[in-house]
Amino acid sequence: MLRIYLTLFIFLTGCSILGPQKNSQELEGQMQSLRKEINADVKKLIRSELLPELKGLNYVPKDLRKNQIKAKKSAVQKIVLGRIEWVTIGSKNMRLKARVDSGAQTSSLHAENIIEKTIDGKRYVQFESFDSKKNKFIFLEEVIKRSTVRNSDGMTSKRYVIKVKLTLGTKEHEISVNLNNREDLKYNFLIGRNLLMGNYIVDVSQSRLLGRK
Q1: Which of 40, 50, 137, 194 has its CA 20 to 30 A from that of 34?
Q2: Rounded to the nearest 10 degrees, what angle do helices 2-18 and 24-45 cross at?
Q3: What residues does 99 pair with on adjacent strands?
Q4: What is the β-pairing status of strands 84-89 and 156-168?
Q5: Domains of the chain from N-terminus onward
């Protein structure tokens, strides 16, 4: 269609030069009308074909592209994580590998030998955890609440929830984590949505994008 318009444009331009003077105003009107149609079609072509291809959205149905473009703009401002990243628990400087799980609402820390204590009328828990080199750390943290958590097998359990300061890459966060015995699991820390949301996106094909150690 665009090629046809351009051909007509050239033809009419020639006519305006070679044709009688009395038809010049009529031809000019036709030219202006044709220019408007060409401009409209070029803009439509750019929006519907060229921009989606440049943005990698040519495979997305047209009615969904607006949402995809909005999501891509938001994603540009976020840090990309791989499926596994290193975290440091601030209060103990405990360094350990963490699995990223966007399906988990709350982040989780491995805990053994949990003992509940009351100090100055407040509830605390003492527990043991281990870094990636199997070094043992003993924590004493105030309990925020106890929550019911459903695991991937559909089983529910009550877990203590505490606040921890941690570093992921170069960014520091203070988040809630639940305590769970993860000795049968490969990683002692699980990064959940309460850390991911608003800050990060995940590329599961990658690993340790924020550092190898």
Answers
A1: 50
A2: 160
A3: 84, 190
A4: antiparallel
A5: 2-76 (no CATH), 79-202 (2.40.70.10)
CA distance linking residue 192 with residue 101, whole number of Å: 5
Query: To which residue do tokens 């070094």 refer?
Result: 135
**Beta-bridge partners for 8:** none
- The first and second tokens of residue 213, run together, are 């150690």
Rounded to 10 degrees, what is the CA torsion of 59, 63, 65, 70?
-160
The per-residue pLDDT for range 119-165, each reduced to its tens digit, is 999 999 999 999 999 999 999 999 999 998 877 677 788 999 999 99
What does the alpha-carbon distance between residue 15 and residue 6 come to, in Å, rounded to a whole number? 14
131: left (phi over 0), alpha (psi -120 to 50) or beta: beta
E strand map for the chain: 79-81, 84-89, 94-100, 107-110, 112-119, 122-130, 136-142, 145-150, 156-168, 171-180, 189-191, 200-202
